[in-house]
Design goal:
single chain, 280 residues, Rossmann fold, six-stranded mixed beta sheet, 11 helices, 21% strand, globular, binds adenosine-5'-diphosphate, binds magnesium ion
Length: 280
């Protein structure tokens, strides 16, 4: 049984614009899923349907077997934690500690359990030293971690992250990706994120859905989808830079043609292999 099932979902905004058309997703527990597509593809709209912020115009969304509808929203929102694209939309308490405490107190968690959970979330997001700071004065990367900590404190099964790296500097991107992968691996939390940054997608996804103009164009493992170079290009996406370099070297006859590496570590392996062959 899938943890998240999106079945034939379409969504039309009040002005008559149809942002999603008959979208199907099936996501299992513990998976790392990327929803990939150019601006305006419908990624943020899709994410808002997962926890009932929007209601499908047609079709159904199920989370852990529960239909996403008004009477199930309380339970569903405990299972799905949303990390918004703009952290300022998410942070509204005065200190980081209060930010994390807010959802917990609303869920009637008090006393020692409250303190223990706050400490756990601060540690999990690696922001223990920020606890007494004002969230509004932090850097973009720090704000992202605070938003993540406040969501993690609620112990969700799934983290939904809308363009999680868009506002981060390069070092912030690296460390946030590392943190998300650790959370997925050690806590088994399912990750669903959106992005159009193809350098990042392979570092954080096992499987992906390519969305364009409200429709799923293709889905499959990250390697399967990135092997469809024409489809990427037709949907305003490019190869990861490292894959593009290896593709060019292959076309130049400097490297054997074949599967393209998607990350630096994959490229390192295949280049070492090719160079080893050249030397011997
Ligand atoms: N409130 C709204 N009313 C009408 N159209 C909207 C609204 N919000 C988004 N859209 C449109 O829906 C499409 C998908 O938007 P969105 O889900 O934000 O895409 P993405 O996150 O992939 O960039 C876009 O064309 C956008 O202009
Ligand atoms: Mg968006």
């Amino acid at each position: 049984m899938n943890f998240i099932d999106v079945q034939e979902v379409s969504y039309t905004y009040a002005d008559g614009f149809t942002a999603l058309r008959q979208v199907n997703l099936a996501i299992g527990k513990g998976e790392r899923i990327a929803v990939v597509g150019p601006n305006g593809a419908g990624k943020s709209t899709l994410f808002q349907l997962l926890n009932g912020l929007l209601k499908p115009t047609s079709g159904k969304v199920y989370v852990d077997g529960l239909l996403v509808e008004k009477k199930n929203l309380y339970q569903i929102r405990r299972k799905i934690g949303m990390v918004f694209q703009d952290s300022d939309d998410q942070l509204f308490n005065s200190t980081v500690r209060q930010e994390i405490a807010y959802g917990l107190i609303n869920s009637h968690i008090t006393g020692e359990e409250l303190e223990r959970t706050i400490a756990w979330a601060l540690d999990a997001a690696n922001i223990r030293d920020l606890a007494e700071k004002s969230a509004h004065n932090l850097s973009g990367g720090e704000k992202k971690r605070v938003a993540l900590a406040s969501v993690l404190a609620m112990k969700p099964d799934v983290l939904v992250l809308d363009e999680p790296t868009a506002a981060l500097d390069p070092q912030g991107v690296q460390s946030f990706l590392g943190l998300l992968n650790k959370i997925n691996k050690e806590m088994g939390i399912t990750l669903i994120f959106s992005s159009h940054d193809t350098d990042i997608i392979p570092l954080l996804s096992d499987r992906l859905y390519l969305l364009n103009a409200g429709k799923i164009v293709i889905s499959g493992t990250t390697a399967e989808v990135f092997a469809q170079r024409d489809i990427l290009r037709h949907n305003s996406l490019r190869l990861p830079r490292v894959a593009h370099l290896v593709e060019i070297l292959g076309n130049d006859g400097c490297l054997p043609q074949g599967d393209l590496p998607l990350t630096i570590s994959q490229a390192r392996r295949s280049l070492r292999k090719a160079l080893g062959k050249l030397e011997s």
